[in-house]
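Table S2 (continued). Query chain:
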Amino acid sequence: MSTADKKADNFIEEIILEDLANGKHGGRIHTRFPPEPNGYLHLGHAKAIVINFETARKFGGKTNLRMDDTNPSTEETLYVDNIQHDIRWLGYEWEGETRYASDYFEDLYGFALRLIDKGLAYVDESSAAEIEAQKGDIGVPGTHSPYRDRSPEENRDLFSRMRAGEFPDGSKVLRAKIDMAHPNLLLRDPVLYRIKHEAHHRTGDAWCIYPLYDFAHGQSDSLEEITHSLCSLEFRHHRDLYNWLIDALEIFPSRQIEFARMNVDYFITSKRRLKMLVDDGIVTGWDDARMSTLAGLRRKGYPAEAIRNFCMDTGVTRRDSQQTLDLLEYKVREVLNRDADRYMAVLDPVKLVITNYPEGKTEWLDTENNPENEASGTRQLPFSRELYVEREDYRKEPQNRKYFRLAPDKDVRLKSAYIIHCDGHEEDAEGNVTQINCTYYPDSRSGEDTSGIKAKGTLHWVNAATAVDLEARLYEPLFTDPTPMDHEDRDFLEFINPNSLTVVTAKGEPALAEAGVGDSFQFLRKGYFTVDPDSAPGKPVVNLTVGLKSSWKG
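Corresponding output:
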């Protein structure tokens, strides 16, 4: 399909189609994703990644990856590496090599000198508190700095000496000279450069002055000739400064366009607060499976395809949206239901003995791998006299006639095996069931059943002699409130869910011992699980990725 035949699916694409129709930038479309390497990417970043890459892809364009690395105090190469890994895991590859704002430090310094020479920037020696006071307030004009009218020659001299390291941190800044009465407070002589005598993760000690985001961002876009700079709504008020700097510097006119952030129930998408969770030991790290980070979601078992689908299907709008956890989990199930093989594991095991099954006998039974995928084939399960079943699947006395699981004098089918008849149980002094005793119908084998017995319930099970011990990590949302950040009078940490992680020792079928890290399965009747990196050979650790249906009530 040619560009002329394409239709817009959202307001950003309408703008792009108009630009293409007008021949702007020679019909070229170039976007970028500019994360700051001061933490791991989260679900909100996924939305921005998908919008930037998919928009460029639709119109035959390109997307750059550029690290916004202008703050040496918080940025690390570790974060750079994880950001690159996460974007590739999501399914995207950027144009050329990874770019960095620090690649342009010399260019940005030159831009600052150009502003100084044009009388549009000055070195200010006011303190941070004084600068804040000078800005005034909404409807209240600001006041001029006493240093605002320095000559370009004096400003150039002072700025070059700032670069040379003559002055301590906080003693001087470079400010743009715009309008101290501007209705947008960000244009009231904003700070462009500050002094930081700190080593940078890429440039080392080469610089001791660093540009602020508002100065580095738009100019880096221009240097890369980004045609459409797509970012979230919190940067709307920054657009005026973005455009002012482009006009003042007379550089390539990149266009900033804002879209709505995506918020999801029970998740937070503030890197500062996510870092608090890590630093305070509330979670085990940035990749904890309860986190909203892409590393955490990947570890939990969310497929990249499901996250892409979620981001695309929730649309591109101009108003912030709050998406439900149920919708996100639906997208995860949609992919896993198609791709994940079915296995049997018992999370709360109790012994079941088939008293009329021959001792010492083991037979191998065929079972399907994935009924949603005909090509997935079958595998064999060992079956013998002693099994494990779920404790919740047995009741000493059923409460109603619609109970179709195990109870005295009830018949049930064991999945891919036989129909069994429950004869009773054994229990300890506290009344806990320690063993369920049953008999089986030899002519009721699955696929060869000639018994004529109708069992209304089907249970999963694991052969006791060959069972593999599994550490199963069962997750609930990390927060008890769907929007923990929306309470002005309460700290979001007050909503930490004490039951967000439960660890149990489960019993799994023997094939699970060979599962690799990242492999996902549906455990019949229990949910989807994914093998965790903490696994050791023959000792799988599995994470509950998502239940078979939503059960979270908050």
